[in-house]
Amino acid sequence: MRTFARILLALLAFLLVPSTPPAQDGFEAAIWKAERHVGDLNASIAFEMPSILISGAVADTSTHQAIVALVGRILPLEVLRDEMFVAAGGVTTSTAAFALAQLARMANGTVVFSSGTLSVVGEAKSDENAKTFESELRQTLPANVKAGEIEVSPPRVESFTWTARRSLGHVQFDGFVPSDEAKGLILAEAKRKFPAVDVKDNTVVALGAPDEFLPAARIGLDRLQSYETGLSRLGGSKLSFFAVQKEGEHGIQPAPDISPPQDGGIDDGIVRTSLKAAGADPRSVAFLFATDRAREDLGKATIDFGSARADALTLGVARVHVPEDHRIGHIELPGSGLQVLGYTLGREDKDPKKHFIVTSVEICDRKTWKNFAKSKGDEALVFVHGFNTSFEDAVFRMAQIVWDLQYPGTAVLFSWPSKGRVLSYEWDRNSALVARAHLIELIKFLEEDVGIKKVHVLAHSMGNLVVLDALSNYAQTADPLKVGQLIMAAPDVDSDEYAQAVVNVSRVVGGMTLYASATDAAMVLSRTLAQGPRAGDLVNGKPALAPGVDAIDVSAIGDETFGLNHDTFASNRSLIDDVKLVLGGIRPPNRRLAQIRVVPEGAATPLYWRYAP
Fold this sequence. Notes:
- It is built from 15 helices and 28 strands.
- β27 (596-599) and β28 form a beta hairpin.
- α5 (180-193) packs parallel to α6 (213-224).
């Protein structure tokens, strides 16, 4: 019996102890390789996760374990496929760390280490990244490693577009060009054709251009010479042209196709609206934006920011048409239809009477942005959106808030790189943390350069993580600038982090208001994903309490009206009214609206407030 027990214990030990990859010998075995393949969500529930495959020889077992840990730190969003083994001459931990760091700098790629030489082949995250990749790698190369083949191409875009827009006083290029040489030739051509106007080039180098790119671009520039305001667009292999006549009437003149068209061109309804003079549409909302999203062509005329992170802020102006049938708190959009056997049934067309329509999103320099901001007075409202929000969604939400508030001051959307997907919670959280410095940069620019006397901040969901962490750190710097009102709507922030942050934040804000809800289903999702209570939730029947914060329980409004967007704060007439009164500095909350009651009832010093419609 004892013998059987010993055998059983030995067998269990064998099964439970992680196995060490077998050692191999030989020159071929000394090759070590890491390949990164970034997947994406598809139309079905199933999806391909971003993955990294590491194969080949490592120096020893401890090196093998260290490399696995390195992947978790350097590429935390990737699923690791481990095919490494121990062999003589295998890669060391320090060399693998350097190689993995190069892999993280690319969108997709492969790094190979063999006989003391590191080779890198892949696709850059941006054209600037592609230009500097090799020189930066060589400058930081470890002393015991030689550089082999280094071939990092510009990013490839699925929908290659190029646009040239002419308006009074300037010509602006956006989209993509196939090379730096093409960029220079087009810029020189434009300066020759338009000697009296400012020419601005916002294009980036990318793969995927049609063979006839340069001739097509020149035709587009020729067309623009005859009009004061117009747009030439090359999408796929189709060149389209749209113009506004001098008297203000729209004239559309199609340009010849380079070859049989492969796409539908631009939505001329959008383009024509975007070229209208400011103020021509009485139901148009115009506001500023600042974003640290990287520019990305999405095959649309007006939206070109994705979920990748940029190193610097991009400034611009957005205009959105608000429909006549608009209801307070709602964003009315066309129905996307139903997918049946590969066909879309019931898709709605855009209707200005029924739907929000983005009419333009224009990038501008700091001087133009500053002049627009100054024209609206000396107060500003900065809106910071939340988790699971694309740039386009954020633009629509900002338009709805500004319209419903009838906000008269400078309205600014701060959009950080959310992926706009429920399953990208960790990416969004990391992006929110990266965006903190850019938010402070925006606030300082508004106050110091533009001359705004009072900057208010309205943060929603995970946007509160950006705001609270940024302001908490900023409050501890020497002589920080002051912020007006801070409104925290359904904050997706750990309740302990929240309690610590607001202590510091209170030093730099004029007032703080919290809207929390026990009926917000999306807050339940956040709590589940984050594995902890959130500041926008109710714990033990009451909102998170903190000194200096007016905490309001808005559970009575109901569960999240817009699915996972949990926009209760923007979907109720009374809360919109309350936000407007908060911006006016009226407090405590029960002085603003009769529906807001003190808790406990009749208390001279309430613990918190409750919305009771």
